[in-house]
Amino acid sequence: MTDTPGVPEQHQPGQRPSRANERTIMVTCATCPGARGFTSLRVTRIGGDIVLDPHFAGACVLVFNETAATALFDLLGEWVG
Ligand SMILES: [Zn+2]
What is the rounded distance in angstroms from the CA atom of residue 56 to the CA atom of residue 33? Predict the structure, then answer.
């Protein structure tokens, strides 16, 4: 088993999602220097999880299970409408 820091075991290379389950959204990283809107956020669906990987770096990767993804979806719907 490989050990990539910050990447949950079930999301290791070799179990990569198809391109149909992967999108890139341009956002702003509030921590890193750089121009606004020029941070690549990779959003993937792996099984029942939604995985957010800013910078494609695999450093800090956020994994939303169905409950968390639904909560975020509802919140964004409320705030962005
Ligand atoms: Zn950053």
Answer: 16
The reply to whether the predicted model has a pTM over 0.90 is no
Give me ligand 1 centre to Cα 71, in Å.
24
Q: Which ranges in the chain belong to alpha helices (H)?
A: 66-80
| Rounded distance from Cα 21 to ligand 1 centre (Å) | 23
Residues near ion ligand 1 (CB < 5 Å) are: 29, 31-32
23-77 per-position pLDDT tens digit = 999 999 998 888 999 999 999 999 999 999 999 888 889 999 999 999 999 999 9
On whether the CB atoms of residues 51 and 65 are closer than 8 A, the answer is no
DSSP state of 21: G
Q: How far is the CA of 52 from the centre of ligand 1 (A)?
A: 13
